[in-house]
Amino acid sequence: METVNIKINGRDYTVEKGITILQACRQNGIEIPTLCYLKDINEIGACRICVVEVKGARSLVASCVYPIDRDGTEIITNSPKVIKSRKMTLELILSTHNRKCLSCVRSGSCELQKLCNDYGIEDCGRYDGAKEKYEIDDSAIHMYRDNTKCILCRRCVAACQKQQSVSVIGANMRGFSTNIGSPFEAGLGDTACVSCGQCINVCPTGALSERDQTQQVFDALNDETKHVIVQTAPSVRVGLGEEFGMPIGSIVTGKMVTALKMLGFDGVFDTNFTADLTIMEEATEFLERYTKKENLPLITSCSPGWVKFAEHNFPEFIPNISSCKSPQAMFGAVAKTYYAEKIGIDPKDIFVVSIMPCTAKKFEASRHEQAAVKGIPDIDVALTTRELARMIKKAGLCFTELPDGEFDAPFGLGSGAGTIFGATGGVMEAALRTAAEVVTGQPLEKLEFTDVRGVEGIKEATYTLAGNVIRVAVASGLANARKLLESVKSGEKQYDFIEIMACPGGCVNGGGQPIQPASVRNVIDLREVRAAALYKDDESLPVRKSHENPDVKRVYDEYFGKPGSHKSHEILHTSYVARPKY
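Above: the chain's sequence. Below: its structure in token form.
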């Protein structure tokens, strides 16, 4: 590694040649503010908040794109000239910004708001002027876009294009009229948007947000005619704590359960139950297809963002997608059939709420074509992790002080492999744990399938089970999914089983998880830290295989008979449709 000697604010440093000023400063404990910059995703130097002085340069330079390529470079990050420029830029941004901060969903977590506080900007002062008139785009079922709060940082565009290869948003018009929108000014709901919510996660302001459905849930909880139950996905337990100032990756399962019970839910259940149920159905489906050599590779169906992406972009792979409903949808289906019969309540009076790390679950909840009970949706409302945090705060619950509670029976007192579903590769590993023991008839000596773990975009592995060679692949992030599927289409790659998650890193990095600012995202791999917490949780469980989950065994004994039965297909399986790109 070639190094250079430089000065930052009068102090001597040695740094790697070619890195940017922004990187060099962060490596040495100096924070330079940014708004548009996101490491490896959006390095465009557009917002000009990160400007610094460089001796010999004709003007201030954008530190996020300025490389250090020579000895003796002298940098000043906090001179009066730099501070004046940053303040002027913030005033200019505010001059066209909707400044109703108190009622904004991002108040307190807005990166623009924080910078204005840091630099003492009280209003836009001398630059206040005309503002473009924008209608809020609420055409999508999972989110809205409010361009009166957009600062044109283009982070959302980069996430949609580079990470997800969906590319349904970009910069429209020019000059003062430039805005972020869909082609031909179409509503987001009229495009091939897959509802992944990655654009929301990277937005520095309140320009993008999920559709808040918390009031619907509060209304249901106050309706004496409704039996309101809730399920929580694995990734929520390692994300929710961040909303209350706890360290990233904190496992808050017990406090979350207590909070939900205090909110008034009639039953608080664990989606791990139906994650394990999904494995029972999906592993059975895979073994049947593998034996018959039909519709291979089997591709997992747990990620609704991925499924919608396939419907728009790869309809030829629809026969390959597992017919199993996702764990969220399976829970709703079981709740309105087996559970309804067990407690003697009409399914129409059961209100099922999902707490998910995912905005695409809101879209999935609207897919009624294969509802378990005709005319009644499997899921009534799907909330994000962020929405649950709002409910807890609104109810005045001191989350960090709550005692640990336990999930209710009959869906939550067991355990299995469902916990790891939240990490990329987790569905594959859970399926392999079960498939391996079914095929060999022998217990596994080692449960960890480490080849499919990690945050790499595409992972491959080959396993031999009872003499059968099984080729598997795992992809997270839809740009990686596209690359993988193109290689399968061309014949370059051959697999038997593929797991795809729409969000990079899997559900732990879902579009509904707590939003961390760029200053955190650029130095901490949220995917890695949250996933590590899930694997830690998995290691602590007494039962770590889906087919050994006692709740799953009970529901088959009492209701479905066996995995892949006619009854399970009627209730736990679904179908998909080809959708146009435009």
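The radius of gyration is 25 Å.
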